[in-house]
Each structure stands twice: as C-alpha cells, then as structure tokens.
What we know:
Layout: H1 3-6, E1 7-9, H2 15-28, E2 42-48, E3 65-74, E4 79-87, E5 95-97, E6 99-104, E7 117-119, E8 127-129, E9 134-136, E10 140-144, E11 149-159, E12 169-170, E13 177-181, E14 194-196, E15 199-200, E16 202-209, E17 214-220, H3 222-225, H4 240-249, E18 262-268, H5 283-292, E19 299-302, H6 306-314, H7 323-339, E20 343-347, H8 363-378, E21 384-386, H9 388-392, E22 393-394, E23 397-401, H10 414-429
Amino acid sequence: MTENKSVSVRLPRWRVAVGGFLAGLALLAMPFAGAAAVDARHWAATWATASKTITPFDAPLPTINDTTIRQVVRISMGGSRFRVWLTNEFGTAPLNVGEARLARRDAGSAVRPGTDRPLTFGGQASVAIPPGARAVSDPVDLFVPHLSDLVVSLHLPDDISMSASPVSYHVRALQTNYLADGNQTAAADLDAPTTVPSWFYLSAVDVGRDRPVAVIAALGDSITDGDQTQPEPVDQNARFTDYLAEYILRANDLHPNGYRYATVVNLGISGNQVGSDFLGESAQARLNRDVLTQTGVTHVMALGGINDIGLPVLLGAPAGASAAQLIAAHQQIAARAGVAGLTTIGLTLPPAGGSILPGYGMGAVEEARQGLNAWMRGSRAYDIVVDIDAVLRDPDDAARMRPVLTADGLHPNAAGYREMAKAIYLALSNRPNRSR
C-alpha cells in the first residue's frame, strides 16, 4: 500500500498558522534524558481516560467501602514532576478521598522502592471532590522515563457501594487494577488484593515540562479504547494510541523527519457513538469535558460512527444511522475543536463486514460507512485525514478487514492497531508546515 492511499493532509484557514506554531514548539523540544529537575512551567496531559456511569450492559460494580484502589496507568511522555487529576464528574454527592499516593510500578500491585510520593490537594492529604467536579493534586517530584507505568493509590473511606451517588469510572481499562481493605495506600505491596478491570475516579496525569509540547487527544469508541476479542489484551498496552506514543517518543526511523515529540492520551469508550447517547455520552456531547479540558491539548483525533450504524440494529431497530447523520456529527466535532484552536485529525471508519454481530456486517452498514468516508476524504472539515479504511481493508473485499489485521472482523488486532498508529504517525510527519 502506498503512502498516499492512507494519508490526506489538509490545512484550511487560519489553523495552518496555529498548527504550525504548535508543531514547531514540539519539534524544538529535546527528549527527556535525565533525572535532573526541570522548571515545570508548562504542563501537559501524559495519560488520561474518559469516564462514564454504569449501564445495564456493564458488569456489577465491586464493593468499595473503606477501600484502597491501586490503579496502574502507562504514561506516554516522562519527566520529573507530575500531578494527578481525580474525578467525581458524574457524582451527585461529594467524593471523599482520605489519602492518595503516586509511585512507579514494580510488578502486580507492588510499587518500586523509593518512588512512593504522597499526593496533596492544596497542601492537604485528603480532599472532598464536589459532585460534577474534578480535583488536581499539588505537583510531586518523581523521575519517570517515557512509556512507564505509574501507580495511583486512593483510599476511599466511605461506603461507595451503598451510596446513591453514581460512580465515575472507565469500564474497560484493559489493565489489571487492585482493591484492598482499609487504607493501604503507603504499602509497598497490597495485602490480599482483589483485581478489577476498570479505572475508578481517575481522570488524568500531567507531566511538567520546561517548554510546551503537543498533546494529541484520541476521541472514539472501542477501536480507540483498544478492544480486540477474547482473550482480551489486558496489560499489553496494545491500543493504537500506545503504539503512536512509542513511534513519537522513541524517535524511530519510520519517517526521515518524523513527528518526534508529543504526548498521546486515549479518550475512547467502548460502544460509544458520535451522535447518540447510549453506552456513555456521545462523542459530540463529551468533546468539551473529555478533550478540551485536557491540559495543554493541541490536537484532537476523532474516530467513530460504526456503533451509530450497527448498535441500533443489534438491539432490534430496523436501521441505524445514515451517512448524513454521521457526517453531521463529525462536522460538529471538527468545527468545535477547530474553534478551540486545535489541529483536527479525522480517521475514516474501517470495514466491519467480517463481524458476526447483526447490524455490523450488513449492506446498509457499508452504505453509511462508505458515505462518511467519502465525505471525510473530500470535505476539508478535518485538518488532517488518515484513511484507516485504506490501511486495514482487504484488497479482495473492501467491506472486510484483512484477516491478518483483525481480531473479530470488527476490531483490529495488535498488528492492525500498529498499522493504524504508523499511518497516523506518517500523516503528522508529512505535514508541509511542520518546519515552521
């Protein structure tokens, strides 16, 4: 496959100058290489997730009552100063956090010796997060290399399970996290922990830098969230955003003038739709909360629509969303992100014809999908278009992904996610204004 089949670069209106300036700042920054403290005047999100509330399609929530939650996150860009964002955005009552700590991960629920740091909030060890709000910790000094695992430990002293206040959480973390009785936040390893597959009340981790860097926020559904098939790729960091961060931060030789310095944060939600609220609020509805609030965000990357087409049929409706409805939703995402000054990246919808799910492999799906993709390639609504359809589709059947790149006909496998990341990296690297 030639490069020009999968990458289309468009730089409309005044955003050319804005995007060029931001890209130039990213290129001037030198990779972090040592443990010396930096003047952290510039903050950037280096990990983030999108939260939702439980739905009837989700597994029951675990018991949380006087509980320590130890959660593992893989950051993209490293540094020597960090802060953590906690969230009670869907709660209807204050969330009491008795103690919180940050450390580098060792293995399992253990932290690396000498890396544990207490988190404070306005100098206090505990914090009450109001309903609908987030809270950011005070900065802590801790040397962490690029692409490393951090551990955030929270002690929740109240009985969350019996509260009527909705839990704000990310259901499918594809990461093993841990629950333990009482306050064990300072423990080197947890005593008798149980495992959970979700992130609870955790929103983002910021890294402090001595100069601005680009922050790429990925907005999408299960393909962005990293789903594959059974067995799921838990603890493997096999999302396309993980691979994109590796390509950027390891300065590999994919491109002679590669886009070498940015963070990548994943705001996908499995089952999400671009135009309708069902398994979480739609991408349109959560753009402001999940993307525009990310610290230092400069780019938004949008992928979505297949669930708008297929999910209604799967649940018994006669038809899903039309191409016109998908286009209208993406127009809004691109326009609103552009008004906020972000460089916008649109990803075409990959084929789903190999899926066994009713509604995802039918002819009406192809009509809507192809209509959205044709519009995305030709409309100039997004500054950059990466043709993921062209990257993943089977040359012998355009309605299906190449068998070697898909887990189940609907989601890419690890090889497919890596091909997606490569195409996105090349699109960023090929921008004609990147030397400004």
